[in-house]
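Chain A, query sequence.
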Amino acid sequence: MASPSPASLFDQLFDRLGQALQPPPWAVHEMQHRLVLLFNHVLQQEPQAQARLKRQVGRLVEAHWRHFSVRLVATPAGLLDLGPAAQAADLTLTVIEESPWALAQSALRGEKPAVRIAGDVQLAAEVQWLVDHVRWDVEEDLARVFGDAPAHAMGGAARRMAEALRGFVARGPAAAPAPAAAPAAPVAPAAPGKAGG
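Chain A, predicted structure.
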């Protein structure tokens, strides 16, 4: 019998933890609320994104992955809020890949996950534009708190860690570094005037 791969072990651990650590509804709501605050923080730095969201006021997008979901509605300010449970979704996005390991690997390679889309095509195009064009400048936010030089150092360290992770993912778990070859035994120099033989 073949031993399970690290990916399947990780996925099994994730499943067990997910079943054992079901957060109470208030905690889920609080996490979703924090996510909305983060999205809005990023959107406030992008006037064009806010203008696009203003055109979608009241439209609701529901996103799913495994047993996680969030419902977001566009506000008149061009930001997001948690959507009401009673409102029907105008657009539903479902991440198809179930494996957390596979999702993490594709994210580290800079790939977007495969998503099943159902609903309004025009709203889907707006969401796609936001995904493609809105970026969080973490370094700029860190600079406001810590100053430019420490923020630049933290950003550089984060980029180096991300590059190292990408390299690890590219090699794959089976590609462990090869052991170094044993150094060759030193060769004694030939005595002067004698040919080697």
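The domain at 18-135 is CATH 3.30.1050 (Nonspecific Lipid-transfer Protein; Chain A). The chain has two domains: 18-135, 140-171.
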